[in-house]
Design goal:
Elements lengths: L3 H11 L4 H25 L9 H10 L5 H22 L9 H22 L4 H15 L3
Helix pairs in contact: 1-2, 1-5, 2-3, 2-4, 2-5, 3-4, 4-5
Length: 142
Amino acid sequence: MDPRDFHKLATELVAGATPAKIRTAINRAYYAAHHVGAELLKGMGFKIEKGSQCHAGVYHRLNNCGDKEIIKAGSKLGDLQSERNKADYRLDNKDIEDQKTAQGLVKQTSRIIQILDTCRNGSNKTQVIEAIKDWERKVGKI
C-alpha cells in the first residue's frame, strides 16, 4: 500500500466537521508522513525498529541526517505525532477537534511528504546516508 493514500484520506476526512473525522484525519496524516519516512529510510538501507520503537527510529534518523530541510521535516513529524497522540488518546481535549487546526496539520503533512520524496532521488542522498550511519555508530545502533 502507498502510505500517501493515508494523506488523501486525511484530506477527505478533515473536510468533515465531526470530532471523529477530524481526529481520524490527524491520525491518518501522521501515519502517512511516518510511513513515507520509514519507506525512505528502508530504501536507503536502514533497518527500522519494530513495534512502537519504529516511531522514534524514523524520527531520530531524520533528525540526524545532516540535511536542513529533512531535519525540519523530521521535527515537524515529531510535532505531528504529538498532535496525533492528543487526537487518539486525549478524548477530553476538545482543542484538537478544531477543524482549521486539523486542516493545517494535514497541509503540513503534505509538505513533509514532499520533502521526503525529494530526498529519495536528491543529489545529497549519499551525504544523508553517511550522516545517519555516523549517528547510528555514535548511539550504538550499528
